[in-house]
Design a protein that fits this description.
This protein is an alpha+beta fold. A seven-stranded antiparallel beta sheet has the order 7-8-9-12-15-16-17, sandwiched between helices. The chain has a three-stranded antiparallel beta sheet with strand order 2-1-6, with no helix packed on it. Strand 7 and strand 8 form a beta hairpin. The protein is globular.
């Protein structure tokens, strides 16, 4: 079954060649799954197939989204056909998308790419990308961490590894360590361990210090944890999403205080989440004052803001790889009832 991706690519080329001599070029492909179900993909909307480890691939579309992971073991066969009622997709006219080919997936914010910024991406052969982050070497902290959640990477195969360690992509002199997180502050995950339980290797990535932010434990285990659980347990379900695109960060340029070694303790923590389901887009932001207060039963509606407002507060362009019209609509406002809040 692992040869299926190669066979699929060969079939796509064969279809293109065959179309030169036929009246209609196929404009749709249909996946026939082993459970008897099917789903269709419009070929003109398909940008590429992105390998997901050694288990399958994602259909990545022109807008950067990936609607679902296709596992080798779940595909019976693939059919190409022509549908006269299908019209080609218009081109993606986004003028502000990332140009770095490593940051063109839908979850990525606009890169700053300063001289002291590093794009660090971690992945595994079995499950693909764990997360990506842009690291500010001057601050020795991530500007943001971003990742996807979908059926193909949401398996709970392992438990928490506690494999604290260095990010090998960050030069030694700019790394943080346990010494930077003094007794007053927790090593707060941005991509949480609970979102990467598909393999020990992916879970271990979440314990890199580049993925940590100094947090009061009352915040880390209180309000922030409630926000994380909303994403992990309520939104990351097959009924709610095809794919979630998640960005988590803190205001490392708005300092509350410092740790004993001078590491910035941010004043605010926040996240941006884009949900794609059946071709529809919606987005939401969470914004939290970093307080040494335990808040475990908060109404999260109070902390929900639009992505437009989050961009104003942070100066970061989220989901910049979306076509501009989709981005503007999804980011303009947030309807908390759409998010079960």
């Amino acid at each position: 079954m692992k040869r299926l991706l190669t066979i699929f690519l060969s079939a796509l080329m064969a279809v293109s060649l065959k179309a030169q001599t036929e009246e209609h070029e196929p404009n749709m492909l249909r996946y026939h799954m082993t459970d008897g179900t099917t789903f269709d993909v419009k070929i003109s909307s398909l940008d590429r197939l992105q390998k997901v480890g050694n288990k399958g691939w994602n259909n990545v579309f022109n807008d950067g989204s990936a609607n679902r992971a296709v596992l080798f073991s779940n595909v019976e066969y693939i059919e190409f056909f022509y549908d006269e009622n299908v019209t080609p997709d218009p081109p993606n006219n986004n003028v502000n998308k990332n140009t770095n080919p490593r940051a063109m997936l839908l979850e990525y914010p606009r890169l700053r790419e300063g001289n002291m910024d590093i794009l660090s991406i971690h992945s595994t052969k079995d499950y693909g990308i764990t997360f990506g982050l842009e690291y500010d070497c001057n601050k020795r902290l991530a500007r943001w961490v971003t990742y996807q959640m979908h059926k193909g990477n949401s398996y709970k195969n392992v438990t928490r590894t506690n494999a604290w360690g260095d990010d090998p992509n960050i030069p030694y002199q700019y790394r943080t360590s346990s010494a930077d997180f003094t007794s007053n502050f927790s090593r707060g995950h941005l991509c949480p361990s609970s979102d990467r339980l598909c393999s020990r290797e992916q879970n271990a990535h979440t314990f890199y210090y580049s993925n940590m932010m100094p947090q009061y434990q009352n915040h880390n285990g209180g309000l922030w944890q409630s926000m994380e659980q909303q994403v992990t347990n309520k939104w990351n379900t097959d009924n709610f999403r095809d794919t979630l695109y998640v960005v988590k960060a803190a205001t490392i340029y708005d300092q509350l205080t410092t740790t004993g070694t001078g590491l910035t303790v941010p004043r605010y923590f926040y996240m941006a989440v884009l949900c794609v389901k059946n071709g529809s887009y919606k987005a939401i932001g969470f914004w939290s004052l970093h307080e040494n207060v335990s808040r475990t039963k908060e109404d999260l509606k109070k902390y929900a803001i639009s992505i437009d407002e989050l961009e104003e507060r942070t100066g970061i362009d989220f989901f910049c790889n979306l076509p501009d019209d989709i981005e503007e609509e999804a980011e303009r406002e947030v309807n908390t009832s759409d998010w079960n809040l």
